[in-house]
Amino acid sequence: MSDKPLIFIAYFGPDRGAAVSLHGALAAGGHRPWCDAIDLLPGDLWDEVIPARLKEATIILVLVSTTGHDGWYARSEVAEAIDRARADRSRRVIPVMLDGATKEDVPYGLRRVSHIDASRNDFIAVVDGIDRLLGRLSGDDGPRPTAPTKGAGKDVTAGHGGPPTIDLHGLVQATIRRRLDRDLLLSWLPDDLRAMMPTHRTYFEQITSDLAFLHKAGKLSDGQWALEVWLRQAERLAGPFAEARIYRGALQALAHQR
Question: pLDDT confidence of 9, banded at 50, 70, 90?
Answer without folding.
Answer: very high
